[in-house]
């Protein structure tokens, strides 16, 4: 299979401090690949290296088999939304897009106008087209940045937290747009976000980056089933009681971890067969259990678990 | 050519930029002051043109070239570097579009000053204003822009102080030297032109070989 994005053995150091350790992943055509991880994990750094804005210390980072910094033609096939919006505040929304349209080689004025109108309508900013971007709200700027990235119908999209600062409707818009572009137009997307519900809905595959290392990767379903151990939530009558239980339960060898949150204790156990054992222990210990239930595992919990562990 | 796309955008921004207006006002204020304080001195037209035209142009250019910094600080430069544009086109586009207004202000005010004093222009003055002054201004803006690209934000502030005080000191010296015999000759004009061309050429070469990483890592 020919990869659209190829990252292999990528290492990046800033003044001798290593921030990416041997990062490897591949993204195929029309995939939406999510790069997840806590703040400072190295997501933006990885994207910047792919875009040719930073040089890799070791390893390779290719887009469509080439280094983006070395091919003007290739840069014309890529759309980006970076952490900053890349807009000019003295210009209106329309003028901003017109500039980028020319940069991306949309030569005929009629064609340009048509395309600008299309993308502005797509992100719901057509009414605001003559307003200077300096007067835009943060979310409006983000929407315009997205329109800018789509302007030239790119084959590959790099979206670094595209929904940052967007309202609920805007977030849904981005999700729908990304899904539609990948399904209908075969666009390949590299996506980062801190909103895991969003990632769950949008991304076909994800990689979890922690401290510059990939600690897990695969489809959302495979990650959840591979990494999630059964989780039980038990409620007690008081916070004090919950704390005591947590202290007591932590000693059991099949309890992987437990967290206290008010009157409830969340307990992670090794396997399904440990749940009855746990309930039994609780019942015999004399603590008064108000409610106990098995928690349905979502990407978010798997994420938290993996990040804490690493 | 993509260069003209950049220039076109920069012009639009310049026209809407209030800092151009304030540069023009400060130049006018300075000129007003200058002509009232030196009205009794016998100053030759050559001296005025030789010193004032490049100085005024560089002052206005310095005022406008914070746009290099702004583009970096706001992060737009990062996005621009991901487009088919090259760093050299970005730089050159800015240099061209900041040089033009600086040049216009400088030549217009120099001509105004000498015509107020009743001087006429000769061939040397025309050639100097038409050919040497724009190159001097462009090379100064180009060098400044290059430095803004490679320096971190704190160093940029230091650079600004240095440039500001150097310009101030230069103006002070220039005003004191205005009355001495002129040094605007065909020879001095060609020396200045050559020097500026060399500076511009070196900066152009450096920009071509500047890594994007240097710019991206000095953003904050
Ligand atoms: N120019 C730089 N110089 C030195 N260190 C840097 C530089 N850029 C990034 N880093 C370091 O690299 C690490 C990864 O940063 P990066 O911006 O890639 O994180 P991120 O995963 O995008 O985080 P966030 O979720 O907050 O956006 C951080 O520790 C950061 O301090
Ligand atoms: Mg980031």
Helix-strand blueprint:
The complex is a heterodimer of chains A (310) and B (220).
Chain A (H helix, E strand, L loop, with lengths): L2 E12 L2 E12 L3 E5 L6 H8 L7 E6 L8 H4 L2 E4 L11 H11 L5 H14 L15 H13 L5 E5 L7 H18 L2 E5 L3 H7 L2 E6 L2 E6 L1 H8 L3 E6 L2 H11 L5 E7 L2 E6 L4 H12 L3 E6 L4 H11 L1
Parallel strand pairs in A: 3-7, 3-8, 5-6, 6-7
Antiparallel strand pairs in A: 1-2, 1-4, 8-9, 10-12, 10-13, 11-12
Helix pairs in contact in A: 3-4, 4-5
Chain B lengths: L1 H14 L2 H20 L7 H20 L1 H8 L2 H6 L5 H30 L6 H28 L2 H25 L8 H23 L3 H5 L4
Bound molecules: adenosine-5'-triphosphate (ATP) and magnesium ion.
Structure in words:
- By secondary structure, chain A is α/β, with parallel strands linked by helices.
- Chain A is 38% helix and 28% strand.
- Chain A folds into 2 domains: 217 residues, P-loop containing nucleotide triphosphate hydrolases (Rossmann fold, 3-Layer(aba) Sandwich); 84 residues, Alpha-Beta Plaits (2-Layer Sandwich).
- In chain A, the strands form 3 sheets. Chain A has a 6-stranded mixed β-sheet, with helices on both faces. A 4-stranded antiparallel β-sheet of chain A has the order 11-12-10-13, with helices on one face. A 3-stranded antiparallel β-sheet of chain A has the order 2-1-4, covered by helices on one side.
- In chain A, helix 6 links the parallel strand 6 and strand 7.
- In chain A, helix 3 crosses helix 4.
- Chain A is elongated.
- Chain A starts with a strand and ends with a helix.
- The model of chain A has no long low-confidence stretch (mean pLDDT 92).
- With 220 residues, chain B is mostly helical.
- Chain B has one domain.
- Chain B has 10 helices and no strands.
- The longest helix of chain B has 30 residues.
- Chain B is elongated and about 55 Å long.
- Chains A and B meet through helix 2 and helix 3 of A and helix 1, helix 5 and helix 10 of B.
- The complex binds adenosine-5'-triphosphate and magnesium ion.
- Adenosine-5'-triphosphate binds next to helix 1 of chain A.
